[in-house]
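debug: dumping io for the single-chain case to check the tokenizer round-trip. Nothing else runs in this session.
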Amino acid sequence: MAVRISATRTFSSTCRAEVALSRAKAEEAKPRPQQPYLSIRNLTKRFEKFAALDNVDLDIAEGEFVSILGPSGCGKTTLLRAVAGLDVQTSGTVHQAGRDISNLPVSGRDFGIVFQSYALFPNLTIAANVGYGLTSAGYKRQEIEKRVTELLNLVGLADQAKKYPAQLSGGQQQRVALARALALSPGLLLLDEPLSALDARVRARLRGEIRDLQRRLGITTIMVTHDQEEALTMSDRVVVMSKGRIEQIGTPDEIYGRPASAFVADFVGRMNFIPGNLLSDSMVEVKGAKLDFAEPVGLGRGSAVTVCIRPEDVVLHRGNGSDPNRLDAQIGVMEFVGNHFSTVLHAENTNLNISADFSMNDVREFGLASGKTVPIRLPPDRLRVFPNPPSEA
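debug: decoded output
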């Protein structure tokens, strides 16, 4: 009996050891949460009593393209300059690839930067401009020539190496500035309003080229811009800033389709803003119309709110009369805007006027024209409801 008990214990001990080992291996095999490549914590920058940055927190993954978007004076450029060490923060920390760079000089940080003004040396050839950082770092001439050739091929300017900046177009000069920023193979690429000095057509083409290049190189990139179209088309994520604070961080779809505040809704894209009062957690009264909305706002009945809907989310109604948020509306003046018509709709039996965009197909199918009354619908899931600030309540 004793032997059998001993054998059982030995067997059980072996099993437990194997199970423990198996669990340990499984735990090791589990994908671990990726540490952010760039980690910004409680970053504050004060100029006397003015806070240009106010306790900013931001994590950026390796290889990610993040745009910092906002109006002039919101703190976006100050944030970029703090990351670069060009304008050291008052308090807070910046970590890059696990290394604390908060108080390092510019020369001790691992980044390349492209400015709005290009900042090329007018007296140096394109090749010399691109290789300037390599020369300063003490690379051998053959290494510099090889790297410069690679970079000029990368940005499509291999045939411009012997020219001077004044002989190139604005778009070409910006490509040179980008090649120069990449010369030392930095871990981080900083773009400070890189396209704002270019005309619209060149800007549209170059933003696609920059995004394609960033993806091919896999370089972590931060771009500062006030142009919402640039931010939405180029970025993996967008950071919207206002008054030194981050209002929202999200994918372009999230920022555009689900703005977290009235400020974001107003700054990104076109938006209708309609004052109203809550009737319940899912219904609001606006200018005589009662509208259902999808996401509760956690306010009491009668609370003053602002209801937001984008013009393209106002749809022509094709269902039955029992569908929520169905209204009959008279079409105002129709403005042709290339691929769609913009107009203002006047909802019958209410004081509600709302901007709407209709596609060319809708115009043809429904025979839309100024003065005509049509059934419309404001989809509940497209309505965003925000509490009014205390001063407006």
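debug: round-trip ok. The CA atoms of residues 119 and 369 lie 52 Å apart.
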